[in-house]
Every structure is written in structure tokens, then in C-alpha cells.
Amino acid sequence: MNNIILTGDRPTGRLHVGHYVGSLRRRVELQNSGNFDKIFIMIADAQALTDNADNPEKVRSNILQVALDYLSAGLDPAKSTLFIQSLVPELTELSFYYMNLVTVSRLQRNPTVKAEIQMRNFETSIPVGFFTYPISQAADITAFKATVVPVGEDQMPMLEQCQEIVRKFNATYGETLVEPKILLPENQACLRLPGTDGKAKMSKSLGNCIYLSETEEDLKTKVMSMYTDPNHINVSDPGQIEGNTVFTYLDCFSRPEHFAEYAPDYSCLDEMKDHYKRGGLGDVKVKKFLIKVLNEELSPIRARRAEWEAKLPEVCEILKEGSRIAHETAAQTLSEVRAAMKIDYFSKENGLV
Ligand code: ATP
Ligand code: MG
Fold it and tell me: Closest residue (by CA) to atom 23 of ligand 1?
């Protein structure tokens, strides 16, 4: 069996460091590992429209932004197919057939759908398209016969629902679809990076993000105003690590060599944490260290972004060609699905006469 990756992002804003540690960094590693036969990275514009139908310009304008984030993070169009969801209409048809395999109550039980409905204050006015987006995500994944889906923890219920759809489809119509595996970040802190405000999840929709394209100046301002331990008032006070966003970010980003270079008083993060817990280490010092660590990670990304920003027509070409390839691939799967369902009425195998 081939090793195939499918994953993506909604073009509802620029990508942030939560996307980076939750999925993007891993994608680049997997891409460069050479262990995958095909890698599909999707800009989920159709899905973004399910809760932004009244603001199509937001979705449209962020397509290029997300593409720039991909390229600057190190996704390489020679190795990964970058494409736009709505340019692959087969995904819509697959969703339409999969809808018959899922009940309304199963969708209502999906914890991520539940949480996102609440976050968006939809209450009784949930757009049907939004409500059914786990089904369209199953179409996205299966259209490319993805075996591995590298995503953050919030996507676990989506993957479970996709696996159920695959099993139901194969049991009903015969072995056709491939069951994907979720690939979560190994580092616990990266499963769901909190926002700079300490809120549960950094999210484009919550305005608590540090963007991959953040300037050094803005990065500094954001880190300096980050949520820490509200009871750690004087430097000498003992501080708390749990729920302290600055330390969570250090868990995700710091490496032993950063200490030698930027904080030689400590040999590793645990030593720094111990000092903070004992008292005597101020927030400002820890934040300044985090700024250096983040800048080290983001500098090459910023530099690559500047290069790609100077050649936007080339970025468009990459998306156009990627979407063409994705369209071809999904069309093949759709024809297999139609054959399995015997709705290919004029074919040699399943023709009506
Ligand atoms: P929106 O608010 O529009 O839903 P989002 O910020 O949640 O945007 P998505 O495009 O929904 O971003 O998610 C893209 C990918 O990034 C998914 O794999 C998701 O799991 C991952 N991801 C998003 N936010 C985080 C985070 N804070 N920590 C870890 N992974 C994240
Ligand atoms: Mg999301």
C-alpha cells in the first residue's frame, strides 16, 4: 500500500505558531523524510465558507496568505501537491454520498463540532454546511486515499468520524476506501497550543495568535503581554508552571542549544522551570528568552516568505498545477466509488443493460 498524506488548513487567516507546532512543522519533516509516496496539502476554502458565507472576501484573500505560509515553512511544491479545495468538485459529490452514511445525532455528538458551534454562538442557527463539515473532511481524506493525516488534537473526532464512514462505506458497497490514521504531535504541549491570552486554543477566530509571518517588533509586543501566572507578582515569589503560557511555548519551541546560547545560567528547560517555581526568576527574563527562541525559529520562515512574496504569480501557478493534479486524483477515486455503488449506469461492468 502507498503511504499518502492529506492534510490542510482553512483560509480564515494567516497561519500561526499553533498550526506550526500542531501540524505544519511535522508535514515538512514528513515531506523531507522521503517515506511518503504522495503528499497533498489542501487550502480548505469550501470548508471555510461554511461559517463565513457572508464574508467570501476573507476566505479569498487568505488563500494566497496560507499558500505563502506553506512555502515559507518549507513545504516544497516539487515534493508536495498544494491545492485549493473548491477546485476539486469531486469532493462535493463524495460528501453527498457519504452524508447518507452518517446520522444527525452522530454529528451532534462530535465534540469538535459541538465546541465550535458554541464558540461561534451559532445556537439554533447552525449553517447546514458547517454542521456537516466532518463529512466533507472525510471526503477530502478518502479522495486522496490518505493513509496518514498529521493534525492537531482538535481534529481527532474528525478522524474518528472519517474512519467510521470508511468502514460503513466498505461494509455496504465493498472494499473501496482506505482507512486513514491520525498523526498527532509527539510533544504533549504541541497537541493544542494555547493562545497568548492563555485561552484553551490559539485560533485565528479568537485573535490570540502569534503568526508565522509576525514581524520581530510585533512578536516582542505579543510575548511581552502574554498570560503567565497571575499570582507571580514579585520576582521573588514562587511561580506556577501549569497553565503558564510562556512555559508551554518553551515546551514546544526550546531546544537544549538555546540555553547555551541565550540563557547560559540553565542547562535545560527543567532547570529554568525549577528556578521559576522556587522564586527569584522574573517573567520578563523568561519572556525575553522566549522571544529569542521564537525569533530563531521564525527568522528563516520570514526570509523565505519575503522571497515568495516577490513572485506571487509563481505561487498562483503552484496552486493551479497542484489543483489540477488533485482534481485528477480525486476523479479516479470518485469513479471507483461510483462503481462500488453501482451508479456507473453506462459502464461495461455495471451498465443498466
Ligand atoms: P479556525 O478558527 O478558522 O477554525 P484554526 O486556527 O482552528 O482556524 P484550522 O485551519 O481549523 O485552524 O486548523 C488547521 C490545522 O492546525 C489542524 O490540523 C489543527 O489541528 C491545527 N491547529 C489549529 N490550531 C492549533 C493549535 N492551537 N494547536 C495545535 N494545532 C492547531
Ligand atoms: Mg479550526
Answer: 19
